[in-house]
Amino acid sequence: MNATTQMNDAILQVDHLSMKFGGLVAIGDLSFTARRGEITALIGPNGAGKTTVFNCITGFYKPSEGMITLNRADGSTYLLERLPNHEIPARAKVARTFQNIRLFSGMTLLENLLVAQHNKLMKASGYTVLGLFGFSGYRKASAESMELARHWLEKADLVDRADDPAGDLPYGAQRRLEIARAMCTGPELLCLDEPAAGLNPKESAALNELLMDIKHNTGTSILLIEHDMSVVMQISDHVVVLEYGRKISDGNPQSVRTDPRVIAAYLGVDDEEVETVLTEVGDEDVIEQLDIGPDAAHGPGTSSSYLAGPVTDTVGHSDGERVTVSKGASKAAQVDARAATVVSKPVAKPAAPAKPAAKAAPKKTAAKAPAAKAEGISNRLAAPRGGKADNLTRIKGIGTVNEKKLNEHGIFHFDQIGAWKKADVEAAEAYLAFDGRIAREEWVKQAKLLGRGKDTEFSRRVDAGKVATSHASAKTTGAAKPVSGKRGGGK
Amino acid sequence: MKAPSINTAKTASGIPALLKTACVNALIALVLFSLMVGVRTEAGSDGQLTYWTRFGEVASLVAAVFGGSIVLELLKQWIGPSGAEKLVPPAVRSGMSFVGSYLAPALLIFTLLVPVIFYDQRYILDLAILVLTYVMLGWGLNVVVGLAGLLDLGYVAFYAVGAYSYALLATNFGWSFWICLPLAGVLAAFWGVLLGFPVLRLRGDYLAIVTLAFGEIIRLVLINWREVTNGSAGISGIPKVSFFGLMTFNVSDPNYIAKVLHIATSSAYYKIFLYYLILGLCLLTAFVTIRLRRLPVGRAWEALREDEIACRSLGINTTTTKLTAFATGAMFGGFAGSFFAARQGFVSPESFVFLESAIILAIVVLGGMGSLVGIAVAAMVMIGGTEALRELDFLKQIFGPDFTPELYRMLLFGMAMVIVMLWKPRGFVGSREPTAFLKERRAVSSSFTKEGHG
C-alpha cells in the first residue's frame, strides 16, 4: 500500500480528504488509492461518509481539505477537487450512479443513453449549428451513438425495452440502466453508489456479471459503495472500510472480512460484546496486529488503532469546539480499546503494590522481557520502585499497549524515560517499531516534567478522564484497575 | 378546493362523502357571498350610506354551488383523470388516436387555407393573425418551460424587446423589417442570456419570481426612459413590412403591390401577407424546435427538466444548457415581438403587462408542456375562445334582452379552464414524443415525465 510506488497504476488517489459541514466532520483525513483495472469497494455502516466521499470525487461537494488525484490512461492527471462539477465526467472521465436512482424517467431508455453521450454529440453537431442544418457529420456521429447505446442496452439486458420510458422499468432494471448510462460517457473510473441496493438475489447476480464484464472488457476501473457483502466479497479486488468518516481498514476482501474492527463496526456490538467478538474472530495475532503502528500510506490518523490518534485529535476536538462523533460511537474504536485493555489487563490487574512486574506480564512475555530484549535501554529496573509504577499513559504518545511493553522492559517511572539518552530512544523505538516517534512526541521532555510532579497539557486531560487510560484514577501513579476505555486506548 | 377533491377521489363511491364535499363547498360559498352579494351598499343622494340585503340571491348562489359541486364530483368520477381510460370504449379511443395522428397535418392544411377561405372577412383574418402570434409565443416559451422545465413568468419582456427593437430601429433609422427581424431576435436572445445569468442558481418558485420581476423591470424601463421609448405614449408610425423590398403595401408608393401586379387596390393584401408572414415565423419556430429536440442540446434540455443532478453527473454543462434554452426561447419571443410591432404600427408598454406572460404560460400549460400541437390547439382555444365568447347574443333569448353576455365572458372562460385542467391535468397533449427510437416510436405517458423544478 505504498502510495508512491504504485503511483502509476493508481487511477484514483485520495489524500488526506476531509469534508466538514459546519462543525460536523463527515470525512476526517481519509486517504486511499484505487488501482487501475480493479474493483475497489468502499464499505462502512450507514452514515460512515461513503456517499460524501463519492460526492467529493465527482465534484458535487468541494472538500474542505485534501487532494483527489485522477490519473487517466493517457497519462494526464486531474485534481478533481479543482474541476467544476460537470467537467469531471467530461474531462477526467469519471462517471457515477446514485444511491437513489436518478434516471430521466420521462425519456426512453435509448434517450437516456444518448443524453449520456452529450459532449461527444455536441462536438459532432458543431455545437448545434451544423446539426441544425443537417450536416452529414452529425448524422454519422448520431448513428454511432445509437450503436453504442444499443451495445450497452444489450449488456444490461434491456434492449427489448429500449423504446419504453425509463420510469416504467422495474427497480433492478433501472439500476442496470443507470450503470449503462454511466458507461455511455466512456468513463475510465466508474463510481457506483450502492448498485445492489434493493435488488433480489437474481438481479444481484446479474449486476455482478455486468460489473465483471465491465471490468474485463472495457478497462474501466470501478469504485463502488455497497452494503451487500455478497457483491463486495465476490467482485471486489480491494476493500476500504469507513466508519464515521475515517478509514478503519484497507486491504483485500479476505483480510478485511476478518478484521475485528470491521466486524465490530458492522455488527454494531455493545460494549460488553466487544470482547466476545474479539475472542471469536481474533486470536493473539489479531490482537497483536492491532498494535502495529499506522501505515505510512494511510497518513496520520486514518487508522483508529492505538497511537494513530483518535478522531478527536485530528479534527481539533481538544478545544471542545467541534461537533464530532462521540467517543463511544465508533464500534471499531471500541475494539481497539478493548484489544488494548485485553492485552494490558495482565499488567494492570495485579495492582497490589507488593507484586513484582514479573507477574504482571503474561507468562509468555514475562520470560522474554527481562532476559532477551531491551538490551539497548540502559536504565531498566527489575520491578517498579516501591512496587508502584507511574501512569505512563499520561505521556502523550504512550497508550496502554505501549505502557505494557515498556513495563515488560523494566520501564516503570517517568524519571526513567526522562533520563533516556539518544541510544535509549533508538532502542525503545526499535522495540516499539516506531520511527522517530518518541523524539517527535517529546516523550523524554514530557517524562521529565511529569517526573518532577508537573503536568503537561495532555496529562491534565488524562487526569480529567478525557482520555481513556488503563488506570482508574490517572493522578494516582499506581497501576490501578483497568478502565474500559471506550475509544482509543492509546494517546 | 384541492383537498376535498382528493378525499372524494379516494372514497369515490360514498354518497355521504359526496354530500360532505358539497356541504363544505356550499358553506365556503355562503361565507364569501354573504358579504359580496348578500349586502349591497351605495352612496345615497346626500352622500350617506344606504344598503339593502339580497338574501334571496345568496341562497340561490349557495344552492347552485351545492348542486354544482355534486355534479362536478359525479362528473369527475365519470371522466376523472384516473378513470378516463377505462370508461372510454376502445373503439372511440382508437378513433381518437386516429384523429390525433392526423390532427397536426389537418391543422396545418387548414391554417394554410385560412386566407383563401376567409379572404374577405378581415375580422377572422385579424383573429387568425392574433392566434398565430400567440402560437409562436407559446412555442417560444415552450422551449424554456416545456422542454427545459424553467418556469419563466416574464416571457413578455422578450416580446417587448423584440417589438421595441423593430419600432425604434425602423422609426429612427428607417431600417427594413427584414434586417430588424433577425436583429430583434438577437437582441432578445441577448437579454435572455442576461436574465439567465443571475437566475441560474434559482429553481422553482424563486426562478418564477425573479423572471416575473424581470418582466416588470423591462416594462417600467419602457415607461420611464422617455427620451428613447417615448414613455407611456408609446411609438407610433412604425412602417409596414414590405414584400422583401420588392413590393410594399402603401397605396402611395410607386411599387405598391396592386400597381406592380396590376390588380385592384385592396387593404386585404396586407392582412393576407401578414398572415403568411406570421405563419412562416411559426413554422420556423416549429421546425427549429423539432430539430433542436433531436440534437444533443434539445435532449439536454429535456434531461435538465427530468433531473439536473443526473445531467451534471453525465458531464453536461447545465449553465450553458440553461442559457441556450433562455436564449432560444427569448429569440422566438423577439421575432414575435417585431412582428407584433409591424402589424400594429404602434407599440406602448401597455401591451406588455404581466397578464400577457400569464396568458402565454397558460397556453403552454393548457396545451401540454413540450407538445407543439397541444400548444397550437391551446392558443386557438385561449385566444380564439375568448373572442368567440363575445358572440353570445343567443343567450339574450334565454335570459332576456337585459342580459349582457360580454360581462360573463371571462367567467365562462375561467370555468372552461378549470374543467379542462380537471379533465386533462397535464394539458391537451400530455404525452411526449421520444426523440429517437430503436424499433418503434411510442409516446411516453405523461405520468413519467416531470415538469421540472425551475
Automatic annotation (TrEMBL), chain A:
<dbReference type="GO" id="GO:0005304">
    <property type="term" value="F:L-valine transmembrane transporter activity"/>
</dbReference>
<dbReference type="GO" id="GO:1903805">
    <property type="term" value="P:L-valine import across plasma membrane"/>
</dbReference>
<dbReference type="GO" id="GO:0005886">
    <property type="term" value="C:plasma membrane"/>
</dbReference>
<feature type="region of interest" description="Disordered">
    <location>
        <begin position="292"/>
        <end position="331"/>
    </location>
</feature>
<dbReference type="InterPro" id="IPR051120">
    <property type="entry name" value="ABC_AA/LPS_Transport"/>
</dbReference>
<dbReference type="InterPro" id="IPR027417">
    <property type="entry name" value="P-loop_NTPase"/>
</dbReference>
<dbReference type="Pfam" id="PF12399">
    <property type="entry name" value="BCA_ABC_TP_C"/>
</dbReference>
<feature type="region of interest" description="Disordered">
    <location>
        <begin position="462"/>
        <end position="491"/>
    </location>
</feature>
<comment type="similarity">
    <text>Belongs to the ABC transporter superfamily.</text>
</comment>
<feature type="region of interest" description="Disordered">
    <location>
        <begin position="346"/>
        <end position="378"/>
    </location>
</feature>
<keyword id="KW-0547">Nucleotide-binding</keyword>
<dbReference type="GO" id="GO:0015808">
    <property type="term" value="P:L-alanine transport"/>
</dbReference>
<dbReference type="GO" id="GO:0015192">
    <property type="term" value="F:L-phenylalanine transmembrane transporter activity"/>
</dbReference>
<dbReference type="GO" id="GO:0042941">
    <property type="term" value="P:D-alanine transmembrane transport"/>
</dbReference>
<protein>
    <submittedName>
        <fullName>ATP-binding cassette domain-containing protein</fullName>
    </submittedName>
</protein>
<feature type="compositionally biased region" description="Low complexity">
    <location>
        <begin position="346"/>
        <end position="360"/>
    </location>
</feature>
<dbReference type="GO" id="GO:0016887">
    <property type="term" value="F:ATP hydrolysis activity"/>
</dbReference>
<dbReference type="InterPro" id="IPR003439">
    <property type="entry name" value="ABC_transporter-like_ATP-bd"/>
</dbReference>
<keyword id="KW-0067">ATP-binding</keyword>
<dbReference type="GO" id="GO:0005524">
    <property type="term" value="F:ATP binding"/>
</dbReference>
<dbReference type="GO" id="GO:1903806">
    <property type="term" value="P:L-isoleucine import across plasma membrane"/>
</dbReference>
<dbReference type="GO" id="GO:0015188">
    <property type="term" value="F:L-isoleucine transmembrane transporter activity"/>
</dbReference>
<dbReference type="InterPro" id="IPR032823">
    <property type="entry name" value="BCA_ABC_TP_C"/>
</dbReference>
<keyword id="KW-0813">Transport</keyword>
<dbReference type="Pfam" id="PF00005">
    <property type="entry name" value="ABC_tran"/>
</dbReference>
<keyword id="KW-0029">Amino-acid transport</keyword>
<dbReference type="InterPro" id="IPR003593">
    <property type="entry name" value="AAA+_ATPase"/>
</dbReference>
